[in-house]
Design brief:
The structure is a homodimer.
Chain A: H1 18-26, E1 35-41, E2 50-56, E3 64-74, H2 76-82, E4 99-107, E5 119-123, E6 132-136, E7 140-142, H3 149-169, E8 177-180, H4 186-195, E9 202-207, H5 212-215, E10 221-224, H6 229-236, E11 241-246, H7 252-259, E12 260-268, H8 284-291, H9 297-303, E13 306-309, H10 312-317, H11 322-337, E14 345-349, H12 354-362, E15 369-373
Parallel strand pairs in A: 8-9, 8-11, 9-10, 11-12, 12-13, 14-15
Antiparallel strand pairs in A: 1-2, 3-4, 3-6, 3-15, 4-5, 5-7
Helix pairs in contact in A: 3-4, 3-11
Amino acid sequence: MAKEGVDMTEETEYMIDRHAGKEAVNVESPSNAKEMRAVVLAGFGGLNKLRVTKKAMPEPQDGEVKIRVKACGLNFLDLMVRQGNIDNPPKTPLVPGFECCGIVESVAENTQGFEIGDRVMAFMNYNAWAEVVCTPVDFVYKMPDDMTFTEAAAFSLNFVAAYMMLFEVASLQEGMSVLVHSAGGAVGQAVAQLCSTVPNVTVFGIASCFKHTSIKDSVTHLFDRNADYIQEVKKISPDGVDIVLDCLCGENTGKSLSLLKPLGTYILYGASNMVTGETKSFFSFAKSWWQVEKVNPIKLYEENKVIAGFSLLNLLFKQGGCNLVKSAMDKLLSLYEQKKIRPVVDSLWALEEVKEAMQRIHDRGNIGKLILDVEKSPTPLMANDSTETSEAGEEEEEPEGDNDSKERMPFIH
Amino acid sequence: MAKEGVDMTEETEYMIDRHAGKEAVNVESPSNAKEMRAVVLAGFGGLNKLRVTKKAMPEPQDGEVKIRVKACGLNFLDLMVRQGNIDNPPKTPLVPGFECCGIVESVAENTQGFEIGDRVMAFMNYNAWAEVVCTPVDFVYKMPDDMTFTEAAAFSLNFVAAYMMLFEVASLQEGMSVLVHSAGGAVGQAVAQLCSTVPNVTVFGIASCFKHTSIKDSVTHLFDRNADYIQEVKKISPDGVDIVLDCLCGENTGKSLSLLKPLGTYILYGASNMVTGETKSFFSFAKSWWQVEKVNPIKLYEENKVIAGFSLLNLLFKQGGCNLVKSAMDKLLSLYEQKKIRPVVDSLWALEEVKEAMQRIHDRGNIGKLILDVEKSPTPLMANDSTETSEAGEEEEEPEGDNDSKERMPFIH
């Protein structure tokens, strides 16, 4: 945690309320409990704004299911939420998290299609990082029988985003080329797998050097983020590429546009360059807005180029796109059952370890998805601290674990 | 011609060189002629910069065919060229025109796929408005047997542009909605026809009121350009539309973006709002560039929107896109042969009438395509001048006409 700021002094080890949290799991019977554990963001700011506390048990409303959560996905966007570095941030305190999976524990009236005991994954408009969630069935999908909870928590957001960008915003077809920034991230890995379902697609990946060994087989060509990757790509493909997927924003926008072939599509699906330090002022979002290079439509006309933005969560929760997403999910689950795609999991973390997990994604240390495993206990502190934990990962015993495979289990410091 | 400026004083009737031009046709044998008639733009500016003059007969180079031209298409872009109101305008004098059709008269060495006598249509990088053109076969397509030359001259540019925008830049699918500005223009009419080849597509058309009677059957809903069409469309389709096609640019860009559904696509394929008067200063293009509303990629991200530009001519002649265009043309010719599409022709004009034709398109008087009919003689002056010539159109005798159907034959003043 060497990179963290001074406001981390008090809480470098465990979360304040972890003992309370463990009691909730161990002492009370889940089905009768009036409270549950959840990660709470007390206010926008640094890692010290995060707590695990008890919250009142939610009950499902008409059209909703109540889910006993097994695992949650952690995304870069959660960091931006923590900093308040998003448009129209909600009020704090709040429970973060946009996706989870688990078992249906009860079904409210006027709720179609689900039964108690169903294994499901769900998108949430916040509130996912908790032992129990309630959500309308529009955002809930049944898990395939052979999908583990770890996989399910790593599946929904990244694969749906990758799929919709490649096949609905752009139109990926045989013989095309795709450049993906952050090739080692969870979306990047999903993009690479989906590209391999189409014949003869060339994938150019950009990633930090230390990830290259782990991900080199997932893409056709891999470049260092710090190298002049524009020139490198042009050496291989002088005409440029058909699709660019960018979650960084900033200077990459102009560079990426210049790499597009005629009729090529640049898709911005995040703005992680907006996050530079651990904390950020409340004016960051507005500042970033103005710093981003604007695009002149006449330039697009002259160059025959397409620029798109994609935000799965806005599509789901602000723009009524749940049917579009359902359709994409159906196709993805079919690909999963054909064993053509499988989420890449970086590491599993207890709720109490959410700060360490966030630091890892902030440092771009991850390869694939970070998962919050609700039933996992915090890992004991290790002597040799390292932010590149995936390099040093090893299996450890999991006292309350389910039967999911745990691909990476990093040392926690 | 009431709207034309003072620089029109000398040439309100015929072009200076029309008698020379007629001699070339009537006296000399075409195959032995060393000269041919062509429209020449002497310099950028008003209508008075256009002449019909004799030019040296071109001869095909390796990989080219020589085409005896029967008819040429006139596009709004030709007005912008005349004014020099494009990026990097070429040197004058030049022969304008980007598309024509005719009969292959000779074939150079190393030229595959065409024979003398083939009926063809061709894209040209200028130089189309002439009795004879030479062009690489990459830009030449064989005409279906039952397509007339008038139809062919109205077909290539507008249908290929409409097709590629609807099906390759956007992905028009069953049940979608399309808004087209300039619904009465040649691209607008092509868009409407192509939309009708997909089940259950709603087409919103914007056009000047006086065109409504003529085109109302081609679209689902028709609105007046001067009305608050945004509100009208939203009344019918509160969620907005899937695709907007805009050749106007300017204030329509922001309005159109606001009308898009999530994942919807706005395509700019022209900037005719840049042309306001008959002449324009040389700085107009740069001025327009800066006046156009720029788009922030983060806005696209938040709203899940796509903005694209499409210039068929840049794709063909600057960006090596002839194979993409060939593929679109193949599909279009198949639709034509199935009688699912048919170009709408506004009016036919002799080369000597190019100024009147340009004025008509400048005034947005046309419904469908304006054609320069190379074998047509200038129509006699009529006493009652009218710019809305299509309202007063009637058939007239055509001394040198081929067998093409001449849908509209306006009085010329």
